[in-house]
Write a structure and sequence with these properties.
The protein is α+β, with helices and mostly antiparallel strands. The protein has helices at about 15-20, 25-35, 50-60; strands spanning about 10, 40, 45-50. The protein is built from three helices and three strands, in the order βααββα. β2 and β3 (about 45-50) form a beta hairpin. The longest helix has 12 residues, at about 50-60.
């Protein structure tokens, strides 16, 4: 497998997700704790959200 085969997905911060949904970043963290969003943790313990999941959730909510 060469480097071209591996796709790297962009991870969003809670603030970026909050901007997309027009909510407070604390709300995004609450959604992650309740299981509504899948969060990855950085080595420093910060949450990051896969961009594709965020856009899919937004599409689902809008239509």
């Amino acid at each position: 497998m060469d480097g071209d085969d591996m796709a790297v997905e962009r991870l969003l911060t809670p603030a970026e997700v909050a901007t997309i949904f027009r909510v407070d970043p604390k709300t995004v963290s609450r959604w992650a704790r309740s299981g509504q969003l899948h969060a990855l943790r950085t080595l420093g313990g910060h949450r990051r959200y896969p961009e594709s999941e965020i856009w899919a959730l937004l599409d689902q909510q809008q239509g």
